[in-house]
């Protein structure tokens, strides 16, 4: 397995609309394994294929990490390999959401060092395929619903900063222009370990 580079805000691949996965090939399985290594190396709990430079409709989420995060939302991530519970979502789509919205601070491995308040539905229903090609529906709430929505946004070229209130986003302008410069200097992305805070 290989730790891949992570593409940074300003890189056009993060604005690409990812292509559906028609068939689960060996290449897709390898991509899932490599993305998992990359996500853990960067200390993340979710990762979309765009973020490693592959515009295909695939995201991974460590459900166990999401759960432990919600128990201690301010805590640093200590990934215990024995407790990894990775779910790959192929062609995921939100097929319904609850009426109630929540505001919560989000971050993103492709926008390292920045956080912002984002309103999103508290509950969502998602349809996706697994690596065997079977279709599933998942009803998620809380932090899992949040992460699923954040990752599916990536597949549509949408970043959390796009969903921030304008006045809040404006306060990040200076940092964002630094990241754009970093992305320009690193068109192949930056090593996952460097993204880690
Ligand atoms: Zn992200």
Outline of this structure?
With 197 residues, this protein is of the alpha+beta class. 31% of the residues lie in helices and 25% in strands.
Strand content: 25-35%
Indicate the CATH topology: Peptide Deformylase
Structural class computed from helices and strand pairing: alpha+beta
CATH homologous group name: Peptide deformylase
- End-to-end Cα distance, whole Å, is 23 Å
**Are there runs of 5+ residues with pLDDT below 50, and where?**
none
- What would the principal axes of the Cα set say about the shape? globular
* Biggest sheet record: 5 strands, antiparallel
Biggest sheet strand order reads 2-3-4-7-8
Overall number of structural domains: 1
Question: Which range best describes the helical content: under 10%, 10-25%, 25-40%, 40-55%, 55-70% or over 70%?
Answer: 25-40%
Explain how this protein is built:
- This protein is α+β, with helices and mostly antiparallel strands.
- It has one domain: Alpha-Beta Complex (Peptide Deformylase), CATH 3.90.45.10.
- It has six helices and nine strands, in the order E-H-E-E-H-E-E-E-E-E-H-H-H-E-H.
- A five-stranded antiparallel β-sheet has the order 2-3-4-7-8. A two-stranded antiparallel ribbon has the order 1-9.
- Strand 7 (123-129) and strand 8 (135-141) form a beta hairpin.
- The protein is globular.
- The chain starts with a strand and ends with a helix.
- Zinc ion (ZN) binds at residues 108-110, 150, 154.
């Amino acid at each position: 397995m290989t730790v891949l580079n992570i593409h940074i805000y300003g890189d056009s691949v993060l604005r690409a609309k990812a292509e559906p996965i028609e068939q689960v090939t060996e290449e897709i399985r390898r991509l899932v394994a490599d993305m998992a290594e990359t996500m853990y190396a960067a200390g993340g709990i979710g990762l979309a294929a765009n973020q490693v430079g592959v515009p295909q409709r695939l995201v991974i989420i460590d459900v166990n990490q999401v759960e432990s995060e919600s128990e201690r939302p301010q805590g640093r991530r200590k990934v215990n390999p024995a407790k990894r519970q990775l779910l790959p979502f192929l062609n995921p789509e939100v097929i319904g959401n609850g009426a109630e919205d929540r505001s919560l601070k989000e971050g993103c491995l492709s926008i390292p060092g920045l956080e912002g308040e984002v309103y999103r539905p508290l509950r969502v229903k998602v349809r996706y395929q697994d690596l065997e090609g079977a279709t599933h529906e998942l009803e998620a709430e809380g932090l899992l619903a949040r992460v699923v929505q954040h990752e599916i946004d990536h597949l549509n070229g949408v970043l959390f900063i796009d969903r921030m209130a304008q006045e809040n986003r404006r306060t990040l302008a200076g940092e964002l222009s630094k990241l754009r410069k970093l992305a320009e200097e690193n068109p192949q992305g930056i090593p996952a370990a460097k993204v880690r805070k």
